[in-house]
Specification:
With 204 residues, the protein is of the alpha/beta class. It contains 5 helices and 13 strands. The protein starts with a strand and ends with a helix.
Length: 204
């Protein structure tokens, strides 16, 4: 059973619908004391980093997520949920994250763009696999997913399992042991996204 963390900042309906379509057992959970009872934990998210961390701290969900990660059971963060895995973000000031993966979240640097591009980065774009990961099992070395974000992660390449080009190359998927993150929205990414969710559902 997958526990979907509810902290009032995720598109929970579309995530639940995706898991239901795939026949994967999942439920939305607001009580951090129950996180430990799940086989896997899923961290969604849409919105601002600082607000999200405030919501997680309100009822101790931040510490409950850290404790879950320490058990070695699989955990996946998507979009803002992936960004929260890192040490900090500079979105609207400096904010501390969950600190589960070493790195930080920064705004797209338009000065590095070779041609003018709009931020947020929105729409379909290609993810290039940089190293093998069980969440990409059975997938090609590159595939398209749906993105909506203005900030991206910066971390050591040893954590980067996927990268994407938008003005320049950035980290779009990460793994540190049992902790996984993808910047795009797999629940909005049709077959490729559903394959990622399927692979996550198979993890033990």
């Amino acid at each position: 059973m997958i526990g979907i963390v509810n902290y009032n900042m995720g598109n929970l309906a579309s995530v639940m619908n995706a898991f239901t379509e795939l026949g994967i057992k999942a439920e939305v959970q607001s009580d951090p004391e129950k996180f430990a009872s799940y086989d896997k934990l899923f961290l969604p998210g849409v919105g601002a980093f600082g607000d999200a961390m405030s919501h997680l701290r309100e009822n101790g969900a931040d510490n409950a997520i850290r404790e879950f990660a320490a058990t070695g059971k699989p955990m996946l963060g998507i979009c803002l949920g992936m960004q929260l895995l890192f040490d900090s973000s500079e979105e609207f000031g400096e904010h501390k994250g969950l600190g589960l993966i070493e790195g930080k979240v920064v705004e797209f640097d338009k000065s590095k763009f070779q041609t003018p591009l709009k931020v947020p980065h929105m729409g379909w774009n290609e993810m290039f696999i940089k190293r093998s990961s069980p969440i990409f099992e059975g997938m090609s070395d590159d595939f398209y997913l749906y993105f909506v974000h203005s900030y991206h992660a910066v971390c050591d390449d040893k954590f980067a399992i996927g990268k994407t080009n938008y003005g320049y190359e950035f980290v779009s998927s990460v793994q540190k042991d049992n902790i996984f993150g993808v910047q795009p929205h797999p629940e909005k990414s049709h077959d490729n996204g559903l394959k990622i969710l399927t692979n996550f559902g198979k993890l033990k």
